[in-house]
Amino acid sequence: MIDSFYLTAFMMGLIGSGHCVAMCGGVASSLQLAVKDPTQAKIYTVLYNLGRLLSYSLAGALVAGVSSYFASQSLFLSQFLSYLSALFMVLVGLYIMRLAATLNWLESLGKAAVWQHLVKLNRYLMPLDSKTKALVYGALWGWLPCGLVYSALTWSISAPSALEGALFMCVFALGTSPAMLSLGWTAQTASKWLNKPIFRLIMGNFLVFYGFYLFTIAVLKAVH
User: 3-state SS string over 76-145?
Assistant: First the structure.
């Protein structure tokens, strides 16, 4: 169960990499221009993605810590979270295939509640003249409103503890990292490949069918 839990996290990140490139690719690419010392650009790109990973992990720990406490108090809530995870897997699949804007409302909510306040901190990090700033810059952009990340957080809700929620989001971030690192180092190569319609169609269908499978498992557990 635990192995498949983390495998799901990695696959969500990997499959959704095309969306990550679209959302954060401009930031990752421009990072090399913002760095005062061009020879340090690759190191700064790694630090940026490490900061993003740390933010995702923190968010996973917070969400899973709170949800696991309340779920342990209520069987109904625990079952509801299982249904919610399955639903969001289907929504992510449709989103990746670009058949419907199923997650736009989540991004709008995140922008209004969190991002419009955090983005103001950018002015304290420019220019990126230190490795610490690059790390913090990535951690800040880790809170950028993203339906894919929020959906992964919905999955981390089902984690049995804060630590496992953090690990889930950490593995999710690792899934997105190959594309993000490639984008930062070799421009648009990864973006063109990950955004091919056939790739999005295959991967999106995989997530949709997996979501229905999880929903079926949740229903069978509730019946028995």
Answer: HHHHHHHHHHHHHHHHHHHHHCCCCCCCHHHHHHHHHHHHHHHHHHHHHCCCECCHHHHHHHHHHHCCCC
Is residue 113 exposed (0-12), middle (13-18) or buried (19+ Cβ within 10 Å)? exposed
Residue 98 sits at the vertex; the CA angle it makes with 94 and 49, to the nearest 5 degrees, is 90
pLDDT reading at 75 higher than 90: no
pTM summary value: 0.75
Could you tell me what percent of the chain has a pLDDT over 70? Answer: 78
From residue 103, alpha-carbon distances to 95, 108, 147, 167 in Å are 7, 9, 5, 23
Residue pair 135/12 in contact by the 8 Å Cβ criterion: no
pLDDT grade for 82, boundaries at 50, 70 and 90: confident
User: Within 10 A of 75 (CB to CB), how many other CB atoms are there?
Assistant: 10
Residue type, 85: S
